[in-house]
């Protein structure tokens, strides 16, 4: 996955026809804790994967579900059998010569990303009396660069479900868009470039917003269960990256995963 576009493994997730089908009983966190997973993964490839994230989620029966998040690497990784592989849908294939050369050139271009987080980890949605929309809730966004190549000129697009209204401070309203499944999106756009903006260097995360990104939802949705797509698209010379996640409403509680 690191040699391709990155991705996730969920240990404790069952499958049906190559699609998630729910959780099983999970795994015992002793001895299979996050450190065990990281050691097994990193000791079987070279070089080690930077930005590998391992999270363990309690299931209520003493076991855990383990989520391994693998970023798209800015270099190429060799397996223990001295071969190079990449993930293609449901297969692990040996890489062709041109794919290896392409992966080795990743460090010569920026590798940009955004991190989203709610102002509070779990936000309660409130509704003013007689108002057609909820009180605003805040989202923060930070931009970073995994590559040693700085980005001197960058265009950032923020997207949110069209049912969510609000403003992204420092961004201008852009043209509407849709997801692959046809969900309508609203867009905000911001251009960063020298001399007005500082170059985006490796591992130097900073806020992409002048203040919190404030959104509201229709009053009739509060108290229900909803999933709102939210994501970004970043473009820079030699690089284009996008990612979408979900803002989930469960009753009056909001959680965000991007």
Tally the helices: what do you get? 2
Largest sheet: 8 strands, antiparallel
CATH topology of the largest domain: Immunoglobulin-like
- Low-confidence stretches are none
Shape: globular
Query: CATH homologous superfamily name of the largest domain?
Result: Immunoglobulins
Order of helices and strands: EEEHEEEEEEHEEEEEEEEEEEEE
Description:
By secondary structure, this protein is mostly beta strands. The protein folds into two domains: 7-106, no CATH class; 112-257, Sandwich (Immunoglobulin-like), CATH 2.60.40.10. Helices cover 7% and strands 47% of the residues. The chain has helices spanning 34-42, 97-104; strands at residues 7-11, 13-16, 19-23, 45-46, 53-58, 64-70, 78-79, 85-88, 91-94, 112-118, 123-124, 137-145, 153-161, 165-167, 172-173, 177-178, 184-193, 206-207, 213-216, 224-236, 239-251, 253-257. The strands form six sheets. Strands 11, 13, 15, 16, 17, 20, 21 and 22 form an eight-stranded antiparallel sheet that branches. Strands 10, 12, 14, 18 and 19 form a five-stranded antiparallel sheet that branches. A three-stranded antiparallel sheet has the order 1-6-5, with helices on one face. The protein is globular and about 65 Å long. The relative contact order is 0.15. The model has no long low-confidence stretch (mean pLDDT 89).
């Amino acid at each position: 996955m690191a040699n391709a576009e990155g991705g996730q493994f969920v240990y404790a997730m069952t499958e049906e026809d190559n699609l998630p089908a729910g959780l099983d009983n999970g795994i015992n966190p002793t001895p299979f804790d996050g450190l065990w997973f990281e050691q097994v993964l990193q000791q079987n490839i070279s070089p080690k994967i930077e930005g590998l994230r391992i999270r363990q989620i309690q299931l209520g029966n003493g076991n855990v579900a383990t989520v391994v998040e693998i970023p798209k690497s800015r270099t190429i990784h060799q397996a223990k059998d001295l071969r190079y592989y990449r993930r293609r849908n449901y297969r692990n294939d040996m890489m062709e010569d041109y794919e290896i050369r392409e992966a080795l050139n990743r460090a010569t271009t920026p590798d940009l990303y955004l991190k989203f987080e709610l102002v509070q980890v779990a936000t309660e949605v409130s509704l003013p009396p007689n108002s057609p929309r909820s009180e605003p809730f805040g989202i923060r966004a930070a931009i970073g660069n995994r590559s040693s190549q700085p980005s001197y000129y960058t265009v950032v697009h923020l997207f949110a479900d069209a049912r969510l209204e609000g403003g992204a401070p420092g961004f201008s309203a852009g043209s509407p868009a849709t997801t692959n499944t046809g969900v309508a999106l609203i867009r905000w756009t911001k251009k960063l470039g020298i001399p007005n903006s500082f170059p985006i260097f490796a591992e130097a995360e900073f806020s992409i917003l002048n203040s919190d990104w404030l959104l509201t939802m229709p009053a009739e949705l509060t108290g229900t269960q909803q999933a709102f797509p939210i994501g970004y698209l970043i473009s820079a010379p030699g690089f284009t990256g996008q990612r979408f996640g979900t803002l989930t409403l469960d009753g009056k509680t909001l959680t965000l995963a991007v």
